[in-house]
Write a structure and sequence with these properties.
Length: 424
């Protein structure tokens, strides 16, 4: 563990080279496969005996191999019986910076709400934890502050497979991290939910007022406000360019996330964790357009002490699904569950009752988190025009026996099991 997450090892990490067969940057590549899990938000989910054509880092064409012409000059790669799928997206990660266990900057508890703090300032591209994430098929993560306060600060969406910050940034800010109850209750001598909710609401309202002053200025209806880094994130939230990612679990605080942040304040927000009996708020979350990115706990054990489960193990994802929620994704809270085991979270969801008739688990690793984070225009599915973040896998990615053979990121091969097998 120390060798993997130690700060010295992280700082000594070197960039890894793409295999020689990756082709020239910007060149056209055509990949033939036995099956492509395309998983768009709507429409056909799978193409058998498919070909994907990549040009300049994006998907130029995708379709059945029998009817999709290969452009002249394209480099042909046949992966045989293997499948293609989009890179996985993890929306709760703490491993894109210095070691979580060696003392990081993600719980700077200055005040109970700290919207101006930024996780992007401590990103460490190419660190060993991210290298393993790549080997596990995770190509994009939301790197967020911890839950020591109600607002830990701003997360950043980053790619996992490159060695410079300029290459890996997907969007900054990626989110505003909100934490409801639980960990923040330990702040200083201890605070309770009545004050936390009041203080959180007060911070949101002040931030929204700041965003509205800028909106009025742009419309020619007011003076130019002074720029204040503490409140800038609220311009992105108010304009729908970022989301509130909410560390929230148990029904009471999941419900408060929905009623306060979404219904009262009108901001785009998603449930991050949502465990224990949070599924009791699932129907309302779905009705209000609040996504559910669940984990790392995947089950509610029998009789946990305050919730009657009739002596049964309740799957968290199944609970949300049974209540009618359809935008269900998974998270690891890495390194609590290692980032490279994101697919296993979906496996456990299926094992404990989540229906998978329509690739719900695969969608929960790809298009659902991409859509939830507002990046589905570029990522999360294999569709024409999208960034070519593609995995070559030996079969169903939710089956833990499946191997990830290669990982493309922005159309480049960043991992190839034939030349380097990263183990955990």
């Amino acid at each position: 563990m120390a060798a993997l997450f130690g700060l010295g090892a992280l700082l000594a990490a070197q960039a890894w080279a793409a295999p020689a067969w990756a082709g020239e940057p910007g060149g056209m590549v055509a990949i033939r496969c036995a099956k492509a899990l395309c998983v768009p938000y709507s429409g056909p989910q799978v193409i058998d005996h498919a070909v994907v054509i990549i040009e300049d880092g994006r998907i130029k064409e995708i379709g059945p191999a029998a009817s999709t012409p290969i452009p002249a000059g394209a480099r042909m790669i046949d992966v045989g019986d293997s499948w293609l799928m989009p890179g996985m997206v993890g929306l709760h990660s703490h491993v894109a910076g210095p070691s979580f266990f060696a003392g990081n900057d993600l719980n700077d508890s200055v005040f109970l709400t700290n919207p101006g703090l930024r996780a992007s300032s401590v990103v460490l591209p190419g660190n060993p934890a991210l290298r393993l994430a790549v080997a596990g098929g995770v190509t994009t993560v939301l790197f967020i502050p911890g839950s020591g306060t109600n607002m830990g600060g701003q997360g950043v969406l980053v790619k996992t497979g490159f060695d410079t910050y300029e290459q890996i940034e997907v969007r900054n800010p990626g989110s505003l991290k909100l934490a409801q109850a639980g960990n923040p209750e330990r702040f200083l001598g201890g605070v309770r939910r009545t004050y936390m909710n009041w203080n959180t609401r007060n911070t949101f309202k002040r931030g929204i007022a700041y965003a509205k002053r800028w909106e009025a200025f742009r419309a020619g209806k007011g003076e130019r406000p002074d720029r204040d880094p503490q409140w800038e994130i609220f311009r992105s939230l108010y304009e729908g360019e970022a989301q509130v990612s909410t560390h929230t679990q148990i029904y009471q605080v999941v419900l408060m996330t929905i009623t306060m942040v979404r219904e009262e304040l009108g901001l785009d927000v998603f449930i991050d964790h949502g465990t224990f009996d949070g599924f009791r708020a699932a129907a309302r979350a779905w009705e209000k357009g609040v996504g559910a990115i669940l984990g790392p706990r995947s089950i509610l054990p029998p009789y946990p002490g305050w919730i009657d489960t009739d002596g049964k193990i309740q799957g968290v994802a199944a609970g949300y699904q049974d209540a009618g929620h359809q935008d269900i994704g998974f998270n690891t809270d890495a390194p609590i569950v290692p980032q490279e085991e994101l697919s296993v979270q979906a496996t456990v969801g299926a094992r404990f009752g989540m229906h998978t008739d329509h690739l719900e688990c695969v969608r929960g690793l790809t298009i659902i988190p991409a859509r939830t984070a507002g990046i589905a225009h570029d990522l999360g599915s294999l569709e024409v025009g999208k960034v070519a973040d593609i995995l070559v896998v030996t079969g169903d990615p939710v089956d833990p026996r499946t191997t990830i053979e290669a990982v493309y990121m922005d159309g480049e091969v960043v991992y190839d099991i034939a030349t380097e097998r990263r183990r955990w």
